[in-house]
Automatic annotation (TrEMBL):
Family per similarity comment: Belongs to the bacterial ring-hydroxylating dioxygenase ferredoxin component family.
Protein name from the UniProt record: Nitrite reductase (NAD(P)H) small subunit
Keywords: 2Fe-2S, Aromatic hydrocarbons catabolism, Electron transport, Iron, Iron-sulfur, Metal-binding, Nitrate assimilation, Oxidoreductase, Transport
Organism: Pseudomonas cavernicola
A Pfam family hit: Rieske
Iron in keyword set: yes
Gene name tied to this protein: nirD
InterPro entries given in the database record: Rieske-like_NirD, Rieske_2Fe-2S, Rieske_2Fe-2S_sf
SUPFAM superfamilies: ISP domain
Domain Rieske span(s) in chain numbering: 4-99
Amino acid sequence: MNWLDICALEEINVLGSRIVAGPKGDIAIFRAADDEVFALDDRCPHKGGPLSQGLIYGKRVACPLHNWQIDLENGEALAPDVGCAHKHSAKVENGRVLLALREAALCV
């Protein structure tokens, strides 16, 4: 898998996000309180709200439009809502945030 070097981890605020242009639209990279990073399409499965502008808590992000709760680990909306934001592989290595675009995970 080819990893793209996005930025230094410190360039993304704790409980913040950064937007990266992907081949099929924007991708939001989220930084959790424990410095773990997650990447999802920057589009809520409900009405397409920008997840990158949502509040992050734990391993979830709340869509700023209608407060849908999205699991950062798999992109799934939490019950009672149903839907999924496509997930991308992301990791931190040597203090750098890396993103792999080629294997966007589809929700099942």
